Amino acid sequence: MCCEMRPQLGATRRRAIWRAWPVLCSHHNLPSSLCSAKRTSASARASPPHVATNKKKNTVIVISGPTGAGKSRLALEVARRLGGEIISADSVQVYRALDIGSAKPSAAEMNTVPHHLIDILDASDDYSAGAFFRDARRATQDVLDRGRVPVVAGGTGLYLRWYIYGKPNVPQSSMDTTSAVWSELVNFRDTGQWEEAVQLVVQAGDPKARDLSVNNWNRLSRSLEIIRSSGSPPSAFALPYNTFRQQHDTELTEASAGGNYESRELDYDFFCVFLASPRTELYRSIDFRCEEMLADTGGLLSEASWLLDIGLHPRINSATRAIGYKQAMEYLLQCRQNGGESTPKEFLEFLAKFQATSRNFAKRQITWFRNEKIYQWVDGSQPFEALVQFICDAYHGGSARMVPESLEMKRESCMLKSRDLKTYRTENRVFLGDDDCSHVLDWIRRTQGK
């Protein structure tokens, strides 16, 4: 629809529709502000017919947020109070032995509240949104069958989108197809010819292969498998998210005008919360978190060294593409090439790169979730107890689950504050100078010079 044909809604009305989107998805009653217009005979048609006719669905709580925002702590306390279990939606916590770099919950935390989808794969394995959909939905039903509350926690946007709305109906590849595709690409992969492999897949029928991140061989292989299995590229298959969003955008517009609408329903009553923070405060937290991961040489650096020792290299699979592990592996490879030597300057440059990459990732997460209307945004800088209480009360109550203004983080505020980020400067709290990284350089000298 061209812009001239779109209904022109005032700022107040647009804001009301935006806030009501999660409410409609959860099948709670729409706020009266959306139904005040045209109170004629049409008002009887304004409520979705499924509210009265469909049986009550099981509620699933989803808590997301950018890296370093504190979503794991919030999810842990919510699950503890509600008698729930946590289903991790983190693409790195699935890997055994990758504990520090993935900010995996401690043994004590996992003893307090049961966790799922943590430590289920070896570091050499790959993982995908489709595999997560299968595993997370299975875990969700298992939790519900035992009378517990599923609390999904993580920041991997695509994983959560597929988990909530469903995965595309893309045909499964046969073993023969998978083997044939592997044979087509193996020489390119072994010789590092990424661009040549991409061109092969483009010529096979998927021009969007050019948009993949470099050395994402898993996604490239999957694209070629889909083409070989169906004759069509992945983009030819409808995404449930797009269909659902289009339907509900129409419903909300019609509801605001007193119209009639029906909807494709979600499988569960999802109550989704996005934990946001003032951007500068978030970035300070991320920078310090990166320092903490490196301060103990038994942490991220040790885990990255182990990945190299078992024959893995940066960016060859999900684990080695992960932020933190990729940068640490590249740094340690450089140290090994120098006979186990590194200067303070080189280490601090690595730290700065790790911090900047982590901040950029948080920025991308905020951008992604800004367009996910099913989430209620809450301000992580507000009192922790108030945030926990809001989620617990919303779970127990039958209200519209609107975030109180005192706890709400407006999505627009994140956009406005982005102008201040050009002047942001890291202020390290652990590695202030050369002397502060001497123990790390000693460890590198002892372990990476072999």
Describe the structure.
- Helices cover 49% and strands 7% of the residues.
- With 450 residues, the protein is of the alpha/beta class.
- It folds into 3 domains: 9-169 and 239-276 and 374-409, P-loop containing nucleotide triphosphate hydrolases (Rossmann fold, 3-Layer(aba) Sandwich); 175-236, no CATH class; 281-364 and 420-447, no CATH class.
- It starts with 10 loop residues before the first helix and ends with a helix.
- The model is unreliable at 1-11, 29-53 and 258-263 (pLDDT under 50).
Structure summary:
The chain is an alpha/beta fold. The chain folds into three domains: 235 residues, P-loop containing nucleotide triphosphate hydrolases (Rossmann fold), CATH 3.40.50.300; 62 residues, no CATH class; 112 residues, no CATH class.
